[in-house]
Structures are given as C-alpha cells and as structure tokens.
Amino acid sequence: RSSYSCCYFVLPCCFFDFHGKYSRRQSKKTQYREYLDFVAQVGLVCGFQVEEDCLRIPSTKRVSLIGRNRTYPPTEHALIDKQITQYVNNRQTCAVVTCERRVGFNHKDGSDAACKEVGLELPENETETAGTMWMPGFQPREKVEQIRNCASLPRDFVDDVVLNVANLLLNAAPPKSHSNVHGENKNTWNQGESLSLKEVAEHLSKETLKRLKSEYGGLQTLLKNNHQVFEVLNGRVHIRDWRKEKPSRRTKPEVKRRLSAEAFKTRLCWFFIHHPDGCSLPSESCPYAHGTEELR
C-alpha cells in the first residue's frame, strides 16, 4: 500500500493474521499450505500477480511468495486501496465477533475474483480513512526488543538462585555411601535428589519468583541456561553429573573437538567451588577450571 511501484518478497513462517493467530478453515490442506494460500490471497487482494518459489535454505518453511507486477493500471490505485481497507476491516470485524469468514483462495486466480468474494460493504467513514489509517488500533512492537530469556538478569541474582536451588536438591537426599572390598565405608559423590519445577518454586522467595515471572520461561529457562549445574528433564530438576555426560551426536566429531578445545578451562567449575564433595571429575578431565590458576 506504500506506493504503486512497491514490490514485495515474503517468507511465511509463523501462522498469524492481521490481528492475531491465524485460524484454520480447511481440514483438507496442511496448516502450512493453507497459510501460504492465505498470504498469497492477501497479495491478490492488494492487486499483485503473486509468484511462488522454493528457497534453497535448511528450513522446513522455505516457500516464498513474490509480488513484482500489478494486475491493474496506476489510475485505479485509489480504488484498489479502498478494496484493501475493506478486506482488512472485514477480517478484523469477524475476528472480534469470532465469526471470521472462511473463504479459500487459489493464488493462481485473478485478484478481481478474490476481491469479489471478500465483498463486505463498509460504512462511509471507514472507507474515507483508507488513505490515512491502514489498520485502526494496530500497535507495532518496539524498535528495540527487550531481551527476556533470563540472559539480561544480574549475575549476582542468577548466582544466588542457582546456589539456593542446588542446596535444595543436595539437602533433599541423605549422603549415600558404600563399602569397598576391605569393608571400609566410603562416601560417594552426592548428586542430590530430583524435584519438580513446582516443588523448587515453592522454596523460592516471592520476590525471586516475581522477578522470574517477567522473563520468558521463568525458572525453567534460568535453570536450563545454567547447563553446567542443572539438567531439566520432563519438568524435573536434577544436578548434572558430568561423569555420565555423553557427547552429542548432532555435531560432527571434528567440530566437537575444535569447540571443546576452544572452550576448555575458560570458566570456573561451579562444583569445585560450591559442591560439598567438590567436582565429580578429576581436574584433567573437567572442562571447567578447578581454581583461578587453571583459567585460560
């Protein structure tokens, strides 16, 4: 709508309409195909010859839609703009009353047919705003998007939560021991107990939970971010035992070796500093530094 000479390229991904999540209407199509047809329909209503192409990218969402040419002469631009306004307001009105019209389009059809199917007359005052207001009530997101994945939380706050949760897990289980061949009692490394996220949250202060609630994922995201200390599986929190860690098969061996070599001993070992039994691995095997003298 910015100008008659405008062209566009779009790579549809998340299923959203103009004012919220896109509602499915055709069970015979996949959700992805149906959404592609909807985006193509928008291009047709806006008077474009919509072309489809498949990108060579490593993604399952790689079908793009391109509008390079118009289906109408420049003299009809004002008329088409009114049709666009009518189409947008129609979808908005139906979305509000939850009775959105469910009309399927083939993007190979002409835009005139698409516009006729939309066919809902607008009051005069809404039509008059076509050139000045594209979408009443629309609020764009901020230019600078706030980071809310717990990564921007103060380091001392995160460290305090990590220490509290770790102590909670360690104190939930009594120290384990076993006898060696000589009958001597020998304590094993204490991995603590596993607790559900709900149980962990119940032991944290209201101020801490309130602060975490404003972050995406909250407590679970913070614990997963601290991969060195915790393992979160099926909603339960465990203290990570690095003796049981196996290398991921997703990364190629040479890449894994290079990455591990670059990161080796660049951070202090949390277990060496805070765990009552120290680290479960000897210094030469632990990827983290056992003391500042080992830091690279």
Automatic annotation (TrEMBL):
GO terms for molecular function: tRNA(Ser) (uridine(44)-2'-O-)-methyltransferase activity; zinc ion binding. Its EC number is 2.1.1.211. It is found in: Cytoplasm. Keywords: Cytoplasm, Metal-binding, Methyltransferase, S-adenosyl-L-methionine, Transferase, tRNA processing, Zinc, Zinc-finger. It is an enzyme of class 2 (transferase). The keyword S-adenosyl-L-methionine applies. GO terms for biological process: tRNA methylation. A zinc finger (C3H1-type) spans 263-293. GO terms for cellular component: cytoplasm. Residues 263-293 form the C3H1-type domain. It catalyses: uridine(44) in tRNA(Ser) + S-adenosyl-L-methionine = 2'-O-methyluridine(44) in tRNA(Ser) + S-adenosyl-L-homocysteine + H(+). Transmembrane segments: none annotated. Its main location: cytoplasm. Belongs to the TRM44 family. PANTHER family: TRNA (URACIL-O(2)-)-METHYLTRANSFERASE-RELATED. Adenosyl-L-methionine (AdoMet)-dependent tRNA (uracil-O(2)-)-methyltransferase. This is tRNA (uracil-O(2)-)-methyltransferase. It comes from Eurystomus gularis.
